[in-house]
Amino acid sequence: MLKASVSPVVSSNYLKYLSPRSYPFLSHYHHHHQQKQYRALRTTTTTTFTFSKPPTHHPGPRTLTSSLFLQRNSKTSYITTALLLASITAAVVYQQQSQQSNMSSKLIPSNPDDVMVIRDVTPNVVTFSVPFLRFGRIPIGGRGTAVKLTNGSIALFSPVALTESAKAKIASMGNDVRYLVATDIEHHIFLSQWKSAYPGAKLVGVEGLPEKRAKAAPSDPQIGAEPFDVVFTKENKLGLKVDEDFDRDFEHEYVDGHANKELVFLYRPDRVLIQADLMFNLPAVEQYSRVPEAEKPKPGFLERFFMGLQSTEGDAKGMKRFLWYMASKPDRASFDESVRRIQGWDFDTIIPCHGETIVGGGKAVFDKVFEWHLNGKN
């Protein structure tokens, strides 16, 4: 049995721990909460889980503490919050020590060429969209983006599987791949595959990623230990250059305050913002559009709950809360500074790794989603 005591007020990095893989093991949960009034409402929630099959790497009782802040006037119900905290805590227990090798083998569709959607977003920007189930349960999709620079070379962001169709598309763009960019600490699995096919390309990533890949390489055939040519850090991010040709066409911002260490790019000629997990735009309609209807995933309640937190529809309140309390928690001040710099760019289209591409009106959507980080949270 696992007991988790959750005291909401200060959140930690939940982004990588929100793991519905744990849900099959949850056969029961019970929660109660006591209310105390301060300047804001503080809730103490105790959640008890009974596992029908205890995770092998966490035997016996284990107590964890997580947190989440609730304002007095928040519309989030206590039951919904309890469910969210339950899923987060179970995720911490079941997945915190999972190996990258176990994850990457699940990121490759068995038939990627059959289900990949290749789309010309602009004459110079092409996306490669594929199905992807986060933690094997949540259909968030995956997307790589290729950009043809004004000098004719190609930059590839967040590479997905290098299929024959993808190779043919790159060839039609001139085949001169000079940059392979891992847009955060997570979107890197296929770098080695692309680097092998285009050995002259520079590898671009964030601090911590080279070490992460080197550690995973011995046990994961998908991941190599190739050296990175450009590594963004919190200290160098404002002055770092990729090279003259790349910087002529792109603005870039390293959002070190985000839990996943995000790299965001603006392709100035076409006013296209390219990013990975800074913001989702679920559901992932395009990314599952070539999957046979009978094979499409059927999300359950908790999966739909998470997806609702990653939608830009309406007032996007769920996404605002997710960004405020979870994604930006590592360093909200730095996160806010990054968001303000990005907001100052001139873009109209947003390409996320997960969910629908926003063609037209992207700046207004960005302003809505990041309202609290731009204007302050009332």
UniProtKB/TrEMBL annotation:
Record Gene3D superfamilies: Ribonuclease Z/Hydroxyacylglutathione hydrolase-like (3.60.15.10)
Q: What highest taxon heads this organism's lineage?
A: Eukaryota
* The protein's name: Beta-lactamase-like protein
Q: What is the lineage of its organism?
A: Eukaryota, Fungi, Dikarya, Ascomycota, Pezizomycotina
